Amino acid sequence: MTKAYDALIIGAGHNGLVCAFYLAKAGLKVRIVEARDVVGGAAVTEEFAPGFRNSVASYTVSLLQPKVIADMKLADHGYRVIERPISNFLPQEDGGYLKLGGGLERTQAEFRKFSARDADVLPAYYDALENVAELLRDLALRVPPNVGEGLRTLLDGARQGRRFATLSLEQQRDVLDLFTKSARTMLDSWFESEAVKAAFGFDAVVGNYASPDTPGSAYVLLHHVFGEVNGKKGAWGHSVGGMGKITEIMAKVCRDLGVEISLESPVAKVLVDGGKAVGVRLVGGEEIAAARVIANVGPKLLYERMMDAADLPADFQRRIKGFKAGSGTFRMNVALSELPRFTCLPEPGEHHQSGIILAPTLDYMDRAFLDAKQYGWSKAPIVEMLIPSTVDDSLAPEGCHVASLFCQQFAPELPDGRDWDDEEEAAGDCIIDTVEKHAPGFRASIVGQTRLSPKGLERKFGLVGGDIMHGNMSLDQLWAARPVLGNGGYRGPVKWLYMCGAGTHPGGGVTGAPGHNAAAVILRDRGLFAPGWR
Q1: Distance from chain centroid for Cα 286
Q2: I want to staple 74 with a disulfide (CB 3.0 to 4.6 A). Which of 79, 296, 323, 363 is the partner?
Q3: Rg, Å, the chain Cα set
Q4: What gap in Å lies between CA 378 and CA 386, rounded to an integer?
């Protein structure tokens, strides 16, 4: 086959666009093929009811790498993020509430309503978390050592482990705690108030089909705090125009560099010849040749559905089969005639511009997971609500609002042979009932909605098991072992096949880091070098 392109990328999600940008900037001829009729992958904005638009899947900003934002000059093309005034708002079962964020002193004042001791220990907790988060920030744009490459593996590992070696013994203990312990065990060692522990523990179950008692869940908590917004570490915000605005801008930047983006072009098969990836065959039968094939899809989708087993090593196949995917997520968008009125704080305020967390305790979160394991979903699910129209009036008609409902503990596969297509409506009603308990009148205010079960997320976005992370963020599936030890450096098990999605280091979230790092590896393999890359 004649190599028509230097690089062909499967999937026009944000990481594919980031990877394409760096490759094209280095002079490569790049084409992206995307299954859907719009760029963005799971970071898209769509109209879901007349006059109402919202981010369909990914819905909030923090983890997008500052280097990516600067290199792509996103701000010059309209990228704008509005920071939340407070991070989260948690209604409590006794009629009270807790607000998290808005500065250390404000958060301490909130904590004193529940525990003076917890307020006093908060600065030390933040310091401990920030030390480990800084370690992750340092690693995010580094290519993990590829185990099996002898001396090079040792040297790469030593270089990346240097920062860990500079930490104090106490800080190294914090790292160990956060990477191995359950969220509850870790939080119990710091705090006594159940409300305070829930405020932090929620992040441990976001996109994580697990209990806060599951060993390793503390790391998922950490994964959600190493980002920043407008230079403020740990902050979260709303992308004006929704998440799709970010990927629209990225696509424009790529096209300006000559990248070809083909929509409605689903890939049926990665073509391999002589042990080398040589292109792809689309579902419609067209074959596209390329010197490099780069997959911005999850490992399960790539290796189990887009490749022939005969083209993959037997041990690799077995390990991919064991690769855990399925984040237990159910996603809804609702069009509202008015703002929700929470019983504990009914009038409009900053809490409507925050993450509204309906999961008051770690025990509540644990019960939600146990319910999902037994019945398929929790009868009292974990719900995070964001109402971006409170800061972005382009999303809804005047006086109306849109809300994102990001819901946890919905089994990727239902027990007893049940199908999500038959259960989606009932599960969505359960979510609405959960919000209604805290904000009476919420159901009556709904004038339009969309519901995406784990199966719906897979069907719409190609997220196997509905996994928003492309694979569990557990210790055995991180860093050099993401997705498989020996293929953790963005190179697949077939020559000239690469991965650039969230199934590689540093994992899920709208970060751009996998796309950035994969491009660095590809350019190095071509003997090219990009200044400022590590």
Answers
A1: 32
A2: 79
A3: 22
A4: 21
- Rounded CA-CA distance 186/534 in Å is 32
Alpha helix (H) ranges present in 306-361? 314-321
Dig out the tokens for 99 from the structure.
């607000």
Task: Please state, in angstroms and rounded to a whole number, the distance separating the CA atoms of residues 482 and 168.
Answer: 28
Residue 524 to residue 480: CA distance in whole angstroms = 18
Structural tokens at position 423: 């259960």
> 7-43+62-78+240-323+472-525, what's its fold?
FAD/NAD(P)-binding domain (3.50.50)
Q: Choose the weakest-confidence range: 134-138, 152-156, 360-364, 435-439.
A: 152-156
> Percentage of the chain with pLDDT > 70?
94
Q: Please give the Cα distance from 212 to 219 (Å, whole number).
A: 11
Closest CA to 511 of 450, 470, 481: 470
Residue 98, pLDDT > 80, answer yes
Please say whether the dihedral angle defined by the alpha carbons of residues 467, 473, 478 and 484, taken in this order, is positive or negative. Answer: negative
Q: Which helix (H) or strand (E) holds 496?
A: none
The half-sphere exposure of 187 on its side-chain side, counting CA atoms within 13 A, is 29
pLDDT tens for 301-332 read 999 999 999 999 999 999 999 999 998 999 99
Q: Which residues pair with 451 in a beta bridge?
A: 332
**CB atoms inside a 10 Å sphere around CB 442:** 23
CA atoms within 13 A on the CB side of 503: 30
249 in helix, strand or coil? Answer: helix
Q: Give the C-alpha separation, 267 to 285, whole Å.
A: 9
